[in-house]
Amino acid sequence: MSSDDQYFLDILSGIPNDVKKYSLDLADAIDRQFDLVSAAIRESLQSATWIPQSVKPPPPRSRRVVPPMPQGSLARAQDWVLKHQALTAAIIAFVGTGGFLIYRRRRLYSRKRRARRASNGARKEVVVIAGSPSEPITRSLALDLERRGFIVYIVVNTMEEEQLVRNETRADIHPLNLDILDPLSAESTITRFTTHLQTPHQPIRTSNTHHPNPHTLSLTALILLPSPSYPTGPIETLTPTTWSDTLNTRILATTTTTQLFLPPLRTFRSRLLLLTPSIIPSLSPPFHAIQSATVAALTAYATTLAAELAPAGVHVVQFKLGTFEVPGAGRAASPDRATRADVLSWPASVRATYAKTYIAQSQSPITPHTHTHNHNHHRHTHHNRGTAVKGAPLRALHNAVFDALTTPRPAKVWHVGTGSLVYDFVGRWVPRGIVGWMVGLRSSGMDVGRGVGEGFGEGNEGLGGEGEDGTGAGALALALAGAEGSVGWERV
Questions:
Q1: Which of 215, 231, 245, 336 is the 20 to 30 Å CA partner of 368?
Q2: How many other β-carbons are positioned within 10 Å of the β-carbon of residue 452?
Q3: Strand pairing partners for 476?
Q4: How far apart, in whole angstroms, are the C-alpha atoms of residue 453 and residue 489?
Q5: Strand 487-491 versus strand 476-480 pairing type
Q6: Of 402, 336, 388, 390, which Cα lies nearest the Cα of 144?
Q7: Taking the CB of residue 160, how many other CB atoms lie within 10 A of it?
């Protein structure tokens, strides 16, 4: 059979299907036409007046509309979900993620955190804290680590600091005398300390273990905690002595202590934790040049040190601290009085230039009340740990430090405390003009401080006498008054 014959047979085989399709379509069209004609005839007969009522065909039955049944709350909710599927998915994702984070945070917050012990049950993990024993955070952190099972050593430089540590009367909190000004003595102290850790220790015998096995100690971490108090004021008023003292106590002491402990840190593959404030360095507001420069230097130092110690297996972790509620830490003098004392110590020309901005910045709710004033050429620093924003509990810091000591791969930067992460983001991405507005800065001219210099006077009269509130009935208080934003000081 040729291809032409096959093609002809295919056409013939399709003819019955086509005939059937066209026949069905023709029948449907005829039925629709008959339905239309019958409906038209029925309507004409119904409307004709000459035909008797008994002969007329009955009218078509009207469909009864049944009102919908009222829906319940569940049915309405289902209908709303079907109509707003995208919004429903977003709400479920937000609520689910938030609930999971809250659950995870509560679980991590409430879980037990205890240091590992030796096979004989004795304590074996040692933590060294390089911070002033007089600082409440240092003392609180040492007590918490000792309670969790660590042996804590606090670096001291004077007999007074050593006595503060011994006054805690804790069996596992010890002072570690380290004179960083004498390199030979400091190196000898570190050598003896390392030997002490590696020497087998015999635990105290109990009724259950007559001959306990000796154990060696392990250096878990070195915690660097520079003082969080910094001098403030215009750069014109910061003397070279102030810069030198701050840099020596915060930067040089920190780097020297770290350098001395690097050999035992590498030997025990320990960790190094650096705790620095975060809010002021992140925002870099005016009158905090020393703190911003110091923390920036320590941050760069920690980053470089982490890269150097990574091949040795030593993790370097930086804690960026926000604000905390420190129980038992009394508040310093009133912020207004401290600000007034600062401004009084400045020369008249400096007051005329910086007084308004300094006062506005010191009254900002996000700026910690830290004041430095100069009387008789001796500088004193007052640090008020209370701020307008409620701080986080110290337990958050304790838990974060323990997790950084025990996590197999800790993060390089930890944000702990109220405002630490938020202000770090603000300082990185928010324009400087908005940051200045947040810290209370306003535009001002050189002449706005004329009333300040006149109100104070060179003799600082009216500072004596105490009132009922204890602030002095004749004291000078700040009053923002006058046209064009001038600053005036009046007696109260």
A1: 245
A2: 23
A3: 491
A4: 9
A5: antiparallel
A6: 402
A7: 10
Q: Strands (DSSP E) along 303-359, which ranges?
A: 315-321, 324-325
Contact 473, 466 (CB under 8 A): yes
Q: Mention every residue, 6+ apart, whose C-beta is less than 8 A from residue 208.
A: none
By the 8 A CB rule, do 432 and 465 touch?
no
- Is 422 in contact with 341 (CB distance < 8 Å)? no
Alpha carbons 279 and 426: distance in angstroms, whole number: 10
Looking up tokens 């003392």 gives 139
- Whether the CB-CB separation of 415 and 402 falls below 8 Å is answered with no
Element (H, E) at 268: helix 253-268
**Structure confidence by residue, pLDDT tens digits, 336-392:** 677 888 888 888 999 899 888 888 877 776 665 444 444 333 333 334 444 456 788
Q: What is the mean pLDDT of the chain?
A: 78
Give Dmax over CA atoms of the chain in angstroms.
Answer: 134
User: CA gyration radius for the chain?
Assistant: 41
Task: Report the C-alpha gap between 399 and 419 in whole angstroms.
Answer: 18
**How many CB atoms lie under 10 A from the CB of residue 178?**
21
Q: Please tell me the pTM assigned to this model.
A: 0.68
Q: How far is CA 471 from the centre of its chain?
A: 36
DSSP state of 379: E
**Residue type for position 141:** L
Interatomic CA distance for residues 422 and 416, integer angstroms: 11
Distance between the two ends of the chain, CA-based, in angstroms?
Answer: 123
Residues 104/110/111/117 CA torsion (nearest 10 deg): 140
- Other C-beta atoms closer than 10 Å to the C-beta of 367 total 23
CA dist 180 and 185 (Å) reads: 8
**387 phi, psi to nearest 5 deg:** -130, 175
Rounded to an integer, the average pLDDT of 26-47 is 80
Contact 321, 416 (CB under 8 A): yes
Euclidean distance between CA atoms 200 and 219, whole angstroms: 14
Q: How far apart are CA 466 and CA 6, in angstroms?
A: 122
Nearest 5°: phi and psi at 482? 95, 165
CA distances from 146 to 152, 173, 339, 357 (A): 6, 7, 39, 45
Nearest CA to 324 among 148, 137, 102? 137
Tokens of 341: 């004392």
The CB density around residue 490, as the number of other CB atoms within 10 Å, is: 11
For tokens 């019955």, the residue is 16
Beta strands in 62-117 (DSSP E): none
Measured between alpha carbons, how far is residue 481 from residues 127, 301, 354, 484, 489 in Å?
55, 46, 17, 9, 9
pLDDT (0 to 100) of residue 435: 80
